[in-house]
Amino acid sequence: MVISGREVLPLVEGGKGISVSNGESAGAWVAAGAVGTASAINADSYNRQGDPIKQVYHGKTRRKRQEELIAYAIRGGIAQAQIAHETSGGKGPLLLNFLWEAGGTASILQAILEGAKGLVHGIVCGAGMPFRLAEITSRYKVYYYPIISSARAFNVLWKRAYHKYADWLGGVVYEDPWLAGGHNGLSNYETPDSPQDPFSRVRDLRAVMRETGLGETPIFMAGGLWFLRDWQDWIGNKELGPIAFQFGTRTILTQESPVSEKWKKKLLSLKEGDVLLNRFSPTGFYSSAVSNRFLAELMERNKRQVRFSRQPTNEHIAALPVGARGRLAYLTPDDKARADDWTAKGFTEAMKTPESTLIFVTPEKSAEILTDQRDCMGFLSSCNFSIWAQNEHGSTGKKADPRSFCIQKTLQSIAHDGELEDNLMFSGHNAYKFATDPFYDNGFIPSVQQLVDRLQTGD
After folding, report:
1. What pLDDT digit, counting tens, does each position of 356-406 carry?
2. What residues make up the domain containing 303?
3. Element of type H or E holding 72
4. What percent of the chain clears pLDDT 90, i.e. is strictly above it?
5. Which CATH number goes with the domain that contains 231?
6. Is residue 131 part of a domain?
7. Which of 125, 244, 254, 399 has the fewest C-beta atoms under 10 angstroms from its C-beta?
8. Torsion over CA of 177, 183, 185 and 186, rounded to 10 degrees?
9. Domain assignment present for 207
């Protein structure tokens, strides 16, 4: 298949954010005759000794810290493009992955394309509605690949912006909202417990694309992929047109993958059901991650939750002092009894949420939450956890939500050898197949070339 102007195998490395897919892994995919995707989301840059530069923030305000984050991201994105170019021997196509809802994405994207001219052949971008993506990439004569989860979403993007830049639309990434790892594109029209058939959804997407003259533009199927033999009815299917296959979770377990050895070993031990779909992310999106202490604490934190009123009502009559000033919140008698029980067990700090509820946490967890909220560096364009937003006010205008977490902190930690149990570990729901697929018997970890060769057999 021709992707970004180059004839390659229709096998694509999924772009996984914050240093989980990087220039080394992407370059190896390109060298294997497939498509490499390096993450340009808060990526690593390096000192003269070749060691990753630790991202430390000195700004006194969130806006200043976001400026530092943007500078790190630009240097990191250019560095990863250069590494991928060298690793692949100058071949292509190399794609860079962006999160549109990350802070400063438009300026970071432009600066990386300027600083890595000739090295990057495509930009993959999702999470939100990246209307400006086409206009920016086409200026640099680089193909763009929007990530969408429905025909409806692509139709909106096309009519509002992309029809003006049709020549540089390299493909459309359909990321299944029920099967993919990381953030999932479930809309208000869909529910997490009612998965839909990806074939019919991609067929609907192709129908919309054909109406706009895009019948031969590749669609990347992403999410839920493991064995290509399970998708043989898609290959050469006239209803679907040209289909490439994007592998996310399975590409983490290679020799060139930058994740830690303990992360790779963890993947080999997962069982079915160990990956959970949840809605704790400060983006507001659903996401899929490995069940561990980090997710367990968030689930328990959210269970220790009661509704309150600022004034006594017919139902809310039991007074509870909250915070350092002891301001009264009013609960139902039953909820007051539950709150007293949690307090007796050490969850003595009641923290208010934007939905007029209280959650109960230990003093240590409360201090950690407040510190993380204060230290926010504007990683997202809009953050439910810290209330940061990259608008003129620097705020969402809502109350900070202690039921969530600092996503930049935990993703940076786990990508740089942090404790697996105490950080967010994104994964697709098929990760349990590492333990059952004979290819990985006895803890075997393939090179990218070995994995690409294996995929072509159907296994």
Report:
1. 999 999 999 999 999 999 999 999 999 999 999 999 889 999 999 999 999
2. 293-422
3. helix 62-88
4. 87
5. 3.20.20.70
6. yes
7. 399
8. 70
9. yes
